[in-house]
Write the structure tokens for this entry.
Amino acid sequence: HSVPVDVDKLNRDVIEQDYNLWDALESSKWIPCDTLELCY
């Protein structure tokens, strides 16, 4: 038997978690901006 998987939703959840992690790191200033490939 197979369970339907909402891949788009899973991807959005993962991406959102990833952004939340980077936002937390950025706001805490744990890492200097020049070590990041993307600086806002």
Remarks:
- The chain has one helix and no strands.
- The first helix runs from residue 7 to 28.
- The CA atoms of residues 17 and 23 lie 10 Å apart.
